[in-house]
Design goal:
The chain is an alpha/beta fold and 199 residues long. The longest helix is centred in the middle third of the chain and has 15 residues.
Amino acid sequence: MTVRVTLVSPAMNAALREARFDGDAPLDRAGERAARAAASAVPGAGLVLGGPSQRCRETAAALGLAARPEPALTGWDLGRWSGRRLDEVGAAEPAAVAAWIGDPSAAPHGGESLRELVERVGGWLDGVGGEGGAAPEAPSVLAVVEPSVVRAAVVHGLALPLEAFWRLDVVPLALTELSGRSGRWNVRVGRPLTAPQGH
């Protein structure tokens, strides 16, 4: 059975504007307004999930979704770097940042490596896609998830080298659609979640 998985990146918040390692912060007013305005453009799905971060929960609510929290869709655990700005960490720990970007197995922050993130998200995606002959939970799934989760899903779904993660940009309130099944996914990336004309 073909499964459709639609991932929605959350709306803007202060941490994203400031390039902070922090997905667990509230939406700002502009982000909440943008999500509410886009609510009528959200596609239907048999199963609606969300990452557990505050930004994902608030985006889902503003979009009018009753999203079930899914721990496997938690944003990237960046350990002691969480809440800090990228430029601050780069200035204080340049060798650690270089290792983190250059080696998918490195986790100098004490959290999750890129390899672990992609394996976790990929395991969830394959489970939804019926890996091992298991019946998928629903033929269509929509999930509001952090940009790192979207990027990891695309890397896994297309069997890209892990380093490709760094080349993918995910803007707020964009849809990334994966269709297929475990081991064979097609991807449609970055469609803006905007309300139809006249709404």
